[in-house]
Structures are given as C-alpha cells and as structure tokens.
Amino acid sequence: MLLKELLEKLRPVLEAISDAVCVFDTGGNYVFENQPYRNMISRAKSEMVADSRDITAGGELLGRVVVYHDNSELNRLRRELERVRQGLRRAEARYGFEDIVGEGAGLARLKQLAKSAALTPAALLLEGEAGAGKETLANAIHNTSRRKTQSFATVNCADYDAEQLEYRLFGYLHGAFAASRRGGERGLILDANRGTVFIDNIDLLPPPLQTKLLRVLAEREVVPAGGQTGVKVDVRFISATRQDISAMAETGAFSRELLGRLAVFHFKLPPLRERPQDVEAVTQYFINQYNLMFGRRVRRASPEAIELLAAQRWPGNLRELEGVISRTLFGMGESEDTLQKMHLIDMLERTAREDAARANGKGEDSDAMPPGNTVVVRLADAVGETERSYIQRALARHKGDRQKAANDLDIPLRTLYYKCKKFGIT
C-alpha cells in the first residue's frame, strides 16, 4: 500500500520525464508505467537498455523501479558513423603503382615484384627510411589486389603507448578497463575484415602484442582485450619498418616467428639519395600535384633547379622533397611557369634559419644559420617540435597538473603521458 501511495505522489514527476519508467512491486507485478514507456514498447524495433534499482523506505523493500533508455537513434547514428569511417578507410588507399615515380632499374624491378605479390593473399613487409614511400607502396599493393574494394586501414605503432595500441588494433570488451565504452570497440583489424591492414613502424610493436598479432596470423582470429574467445577475421597485413628488423629478430628484439609470417614478401625501398636520376621525375610529379592544389601554372623545374635538388642528401626522402616543392610553389607568383633555382635557394635558406631558430629557442627571424646552408627541416621534426611546445605551455599554464593540461589540449590523459615520455618532458 505504501508503494502505491508513493507512486501517486510522484506520478506528475514520473509522467513529465522523458525516460521510460516502470515500477514493480515485491511480487514482480507492474504497478506503474509512464507514457514514454508505453510509447517505447509500441515500437517493435526499439533497442532498449535498462537500469534498475530497489525502492526502499525505512529499511523495508517496497518494489523495484526500472528506467529504460531507447538507444535506437544512438545506435543508428553509430552505424552511420561506422559506414562513414569505412568509406574513409577505403578512401585512404588513394595511390597506385603509377604514383611510384622513377625509372631506375632497381625501382622498376621492385615495382614489378610488388605487382605480382599484390595478386597473392600473402603478407608483405616493406623496409625503408622515413619518407621513402612505404605507405604509398602499401596503397598501390592494396589497390592492385583482389581486396581493393574493401577497407585499407592504417595504424602507426609510434603514435600509441602499449595499452592504447592494443585497444586500437584488437579492440576491447565492455569493462576491459575503467573508461571503456559501453559495448566495447571492435578494433582496427576486425573493422578491416576482408580488407588490408597497414601497420607502420611494426618494429615498435611491444612483445605481448607481437604474440597477439601472431595468433591473428596463425589462427585467423582476434581476441579483444578483456576477452577469452577469438573472433574470426580475414585480413591481409602489410607492415613497414625503418629498422633492420631481420637483425632485431636475430637478437631476440623482435619475434622471429612473427617476422616469418609478416615477411612472406620482403621489399626494401631505396632512399632518394641513391637514385638522383629520379629527382627530376619526382619533382615534376609533385609540381603537377600542387599546381592543382594551389592554383598555380608551373610547367616544369629548370635544369639548374633540378641540379640543386639532386645534390641534396634528403634525409627525409620523398616526403621531404614534397615539402620543399609544395612550399616553393605556394610562394611563387600565379603567372610564373618555371620553378627556378632562385626560388629553391630562397626557400631552403629561410627554412634552414627557422630550423636553427627552433633548435636555439629563438624566434623565426633569427639569423643563427648563415645564408647558403641548404639543410631542410623534416616535416616530422617540425610537427614534433610544435607538439612539444604546445604541451610544455599547457603544463606551465596549469603548474604541472597533467589532467588539466590534457583537458586543455583536448587529448586523453594517457596520450599526454605518452607524449611527455616521447619528448622527454618531465
């Protein structure tokens, strides 16, 4: 009787709220349901999640209240978001073998072998320096394979700590960790089912995750974090490394068995400095690309400009050359049709001074680097320095409080800890 009296008093409140509510007595009988609840059960396709609590008064159990949340719209949005993500993953595979530019015998042979390997289901390992074109080659292999209409998913082991990388690759079940999302996450490998997974900097994969990846390759199933049962999957793996990973396997720094499964085909990409004969063709490729992007009409680079570019060491390889060409074209006039040596000298000197200024903690207008020096800042280094600077300023603003700094930077706390470790910020 006390329960019914209580419900009568609360009825206006229970009817006014948007959540679906029903109440049972101690015998399990319905004694109340509000209009949102009646609306919900009338929709046959509703996807409901229930939370329930006991109703007590003076230590006496009176019944139980159940609040239902209709997740239909939320789940519809999640499915729509996943379709968009899959489309983006497919769009990431945007290069073909025609985008691997060069006429040298070694590169031509590599392209021929890679095209043949693309038609098999075997895993591939790409080895080469930073910026040498490993991801472009992985794109081309995927787009030539029988999986080309499916997802091309990428992950860089250097971007995550061990825990984050496990969740990113293998997914997790609800409750696997304190902040886990309701329903868990499928992970990149399952999301790319029937497609291709490209793992960059595979040499940085922690040993426990090497074991998990070996199981995926051997058993064709993924065990998410917090789970015991594997989920079947069909993906092709393309991995990349800057290191001599065979030597790492010899010393035990990398799993020999995993390497054997990842490197059914093993391709080594030559650095740009070893193929100076290709600099002109690669430069023209980037000119064509950035003409469209910047609205320029540059037809070619002069012979003197090509000679200067071919003389560079290019520690950042193709990526570094692309940065030089893009910034040079951006600074050229709309009516100019030839990239000249003077354009490059001006840009290289300015970039060298800015690089030296960053290293010395001075402003961008510093003259710390003498004119004529043609050192070119690597894009990855510039991004790293920017990240370091933003993190240091956020920590200074919040007097070392990392939680507040992470909130300020809009990144997870775990990511901030990882970045601090990466950049040596104490």
Write the layout of secondary structure elements.
Blueprint: H1 2-16, E1 20-25, E2 30-33, H2 35-42, E3 48-57, E4 60-70, H3 72-92, H4 105-118, E5 124-127, H5 134-144, E6 152-156, H6 162-170, H7 188-191, E7 196-200, H8 207-219, E8 221-222, E9 231-232, E10 236-241, H9 245-251, H10 256-262, E11 265-268, H11 279-294, E12 300-301, H12 303-310, H13 317-331, E13 338-339, H14 341-360, H15 379-397, H16 402-409, H17 413-423
Parallel strand pairs: 5-10, 5-11, 6-7, 7-10, 12-13
Antiparallel strand pairs: 1-2, 1-4, 3-4, 8-9
Question: Descriptors for this entry?
Answer:
426 residues, alpha/beta, Rossmann fold, Helicase, Ruva Protein, domain 3, 4 domains, 4-stranded antiparallel sheet
What does this structure look like?
The protein starts with a helix and ends with a helix. Strand 3 (48-57) and strand 4 form a beta hairpin. The model is unreliable at 362-378 (pLDDT under 50). The chain has 426 residues and is of the alpha/beta class. The strands form four sheets. Strands 6-7-10-5-11 form a five-stranded parallel β-sheet. The chain has a four-stranded antiparallel β-sheet with strand order 2-1-4-3. It is built from 17 helices and 13 strands. Helix 8 (207-219) crosses helix 10, helix 12 runs parallel beside helix 14 (341-360) and helix 13 (317-331) packs across helix 14 (341-360). It has four domains: 2-70, Beta-Lactamase, CATH 3.30.450.20; 92-270, Rossmann fold, CATH 3.40.50; 273-360, Helicase, Ruva Protein, domain 3 (Orthogonal Bundle), CATH 1.10.8; 386-423, Arc Repressor Mutant, subunit A (Orthogonal Bundle), CATH 1.10.10. It has helices at 2-16, 35-42, 72-92, 105-118, 134-144, 162-170, 188-191, 207-219, 245-251, 256-262, 279-294, 303-310, 317-331, 341-360, 379-397, 402-409, 413-423, and strands spanning 20-25, 30-33, 48-57, 60-70, 124-127, 152-156, 196-200, 221-222, 231-232, 236-241, 265-268, 300-301, 338-339.
